[in-house]
């Protein structure tokens, strides 16, 4: 028997040791491990070297944080700050909230003569078009007024008289995305860029000045045409700029004789005077004579002659968030202040906003918000609080309106895809990722919702700051696409093509909607 012992030992050793010696390689990571590996790989992109990259991904169903990179470090959010404003406004004002614009008078009548002033009173409606002022004028004419002996007085006292936000760049003032905020204003188109005028510049004959048409027609700006028409086929070089602090808009450069008309937006210096001018022109078109305009609060007890209500907030959210409209955000901040504190100002409104955020579970002490749009570089938020907000609002009754107003990846329709209409098409994120974009010079952000491959809804916040060169939006897209594939196994590369917009100035740092390029 003894002679078999060594043999048995060898056989047993071979049986036990053989599988250990021939163990297969470890399997590729899956689930959250694979997600962390892939997101780490995306964020290792050399374009982010020396920059700030804050990323948080949450699973609302389990309250699990699936990924975290610099979660508590504040960063400039750019337009993803609008998520906080929209949520607070829905909570404070309600999705059915509307703005009113009224025409009132305290003056006596003598037949068709109004022996005093007409007061045009606004409460912040950013959707007032020239056609809406025309309808108000028609109501006045239908009341029998044919001559106004006094003036049309613009009443913008519903808000304070501070037109621009803290930390807004002075050189952004002429541009429509930085238009003054007023309780009484005009928008030129159904993008509802309140406080702006659309200028249509057309060529004439070579060597002759270009033709410029304002929409709507107004005397609120003075157009100084210095641009000339160039030879057919020549290089266009057109500039449309409102002078800082003034009403003069200089149109300079050249436009080829065979060029299509060019449309440029410019902000106005005084939105309330702009509204009074547009309304007065409409009155005259309806046969009501008015010789003067001015300003002044509406007297108590003034009787109503005409009125117009805006669309409800749930509908206003669509152009607000899809097109990243800065003016809408600031109107909502001031309206929250007026609604809850009786003061339509940024300090009052931001106080209400932060209070509402606290009720939603966000810690206001960890945020710095000085405006509602994110246009200010002074704003600072950590991505974990932004992701927490997106998680918490899911329980609110107004959440379907909130989510539906977010840009939807890869959908060409501007009022559906918004600022994501040209991004992530042909990937698992298409028509899946609903998220708010944000862009400033050296700032790019994306925050919102994505349905993962296993059907669960995830929330995410991506804040990139202080990068050089073009905005790395492709990295944001790669993160969103990877989340759409979750849980899944680790992948070597995200299914999103790299985009390099080039440049680091204001043009490359602006939201695509601000340049009307999406």
UniProtKB/TrEMBL annotation:
Among InterPro entries, the record links this protein to: Beta-lactam/transpept-like, Peptidase_S13
Tell me which domain of life the UniProt entry assigns to the organism this sequence originates from. Bacteria
Q: Which SUPFAM superfamilies match?
A: beta-lactamase/transpeptidase-like
Q: Name one GO molecular function term.
A: carboxypeptidase activity
Region Disordered: which residues?
Answer: 494-518
What keywords sit in the KW lines? Carboxypeptidase, Hydrolase, Protease, Signal
Q: Which residues form the signal peptide?
A: 1-22
Q: Which family does it belong to?
A: Belongs to the peptidase S13 family.
UniProt protein name: D-alanyl-D-alanine carboxypeptidase/D-alanyl-D-alanine-endopeptidase
Q: Which organism is it from?
A: Saccharopolyspora gregorii
Organism lineage reads as: Bacteria, Bacillati, Actinomycetota, Actinomycetes, Pseudonocardiales
Q: Which gene encodes it?
A: dacB_2
